[in-house]
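Entry under discussion copied across for reference:
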Amino acid sequence: MTAAVLQLPSIGMSSTKLYHYIRIANKKGVKVLVMGEYLLNSFFKELQSMSTAMIQEQSQHQIKILKELSATYSMTIIAPLVIVKKKQPYKCIVKFSPTSASYYYQQILINYPHWNEAKFFANETTFLKSPMVFSVDGFRFAVMSGFEMHADKLWHFASQKNVDAVIVPSVSTFESSQRWKELARMRAFTHNCYVLRANRIGEYKDKDHTWRFYGDSFLIDPNGDVINELGNSEELMIVEMSHAEAVEARRAWGFRDINTKY
């Protein structure tokens, strides 16, 4: 499976970079392309001062472009977006395939005083359900947000569905790079699947903080080893993943059998 991460800052209403990089990815045989959070929309702190009409206009523009690109290049595109329904904003991840679009509404939202997505977004709070799961050419993916990586139950759902890779769009900032990498390595190893993390770059400044989004997008293999990673600049990372390698790791370590037995 050939996949790619597009590591960019927020692009607003511009589509030039999307067209440019997706053409490159297509020439390299990419089947699945992933973007970080708040890349197609303004950052969360900026959204708080925007009208829902403006947010909706931004998202509808990007949805139109991504549907067109997915169909034109026969590529599955994973894109976090803010959707407006009945004048309420919802945080979700959209899977654009050549013939359809599927929406995964984030189930666990950041609720810290300085970054309270749970208060701003209208996403439903209920019992946790499976993250989005889909297949491309027999390779099985799950998708969850960066913050949801902390939730054991979502990983349990993904493991039950025998996914080969978990896609994690994120918007990590401050001094969290090493913690995120260790968390992802642990999840990849204990669930014997790839973890493909797409983080954004750029920065946002308010009166109290400078929010530096440091990139560091990466691919971790089913044994917990980092096999591809980016720095903190604008880049396209193309990676190869093997269904057979994921199956062999699950067989060799037997963690799922142990959890089922005990």
Q: What stands out?
A: The two ends are 34 Å apart (CA to CA). Residues 2-261 form a domain with the Nitrilase/N-carbamoyl-D-aminoacid amidohydrolase fold (CATH 3.60.110.10). The mean pLDDT is 95. The first helix runs from residue 16 to 27.
